[in-house]
Sequence to fold (346 residues):
Amino acid sequence: MKRFLFIVFLLPIMLLTACSPRSPVTLTVMTHDSFTASESLITAFEQANNVKVVFLKSGDAGAALNKAILTRDAPLADVFYGVDNTFLSRALDNGIYETYASPLLAKIPAGFQLDPHNRALPVDFGDICINYDKAYFAAHNLTVPASLEDLVKPEYEGLLVVENPATSSPGLSFLLATVAHFAETSYLDYWRTLRLNGVVVVDGWETAYYTNFSASSGHGSQPMVVSYNTSPAAEVIYASSPLTDAPTASVLGPDTCFRQIEFVGILKGTSHLDLAQKFVDFMLSQKFQEDIPLQMFMYPVNTDSSLPQEFTRYAQMAPQPASLDPTVIAANRDKWIADWTAAVLH
Fold:
């Protein structure tokens, strides 16, 4: 009798437990500080997969990678987004990623797939270019430079601000563009000539763009700045009053821009491999890819994705961007920065 009563008492509890929704699993995604996505998209992924996504912002791409490498034996996250092609080889050489051939790679051009073993999968790309103040060049009846060589001409003396490659991702990209164009044997000679022509160097992009650049600050002394090819579109989108045209544009001559590609990968040691794979698929899906431009001002890599009108009207992709093999960058990056510092800042 007691056993019967116990079963009768226990049965409703068992049924209630079976019918209760499972508590969501937490999936941690490490990113660089510039990562952002529409909240509605993230919520939809969470609801579809009964998961809570936590984003662990970890500094710029280099700092975030350092953190991922230092903690690889006890990873802080399941997924890592934000390594770009300037740091890719370092990430791969340190073995932090699981292999995952997402079916959505079929939608991504081979030129973006820099890891043949599918440990780091491309998510977005953009060009680091020299942007210029249209009004300044028109007012001074000055021709816009068409090449890196043009920048050392006397008429452009003191008109360019760049970021220090030791402290800035855009600055590093522009340095790499000069290495790719002039080769390792002569890029420093170019920079010495650029220094003699009054190039201004600041620590970071925000100072360069919002303090020195005349088109953004309204009072800066340099009408040219190393920035993103999507900056002209951003100028229109964030303008305090509606604009019919972008006040800035990009110099798009051969090798004047450096193409940046950003990657996502599943960190080794994750206890949520299936969910991590689903999140990678989610980042490569058309919906997420079409969210990227107005969130992070980068271009989607999924060829099914459409671009917002502001991108098609005001942003221009470089027809011949500079590029370097990620393994060459990894082997020489620190030396190039040190040599640049000695040549330009000392």
Remarks:
- Residues 19-125+260-312 form a domain with the D-Maltodextrin-Binding Protein; domain 2 fold (CATH 3.40.190.10).
- The beta strands are 25-31, 51-57, 79-84, 121-133, 160-163, 200-202, 224-228, 248-251, 258-266, 299-300.
- The first strand starts at residue 25 and ends at 31.
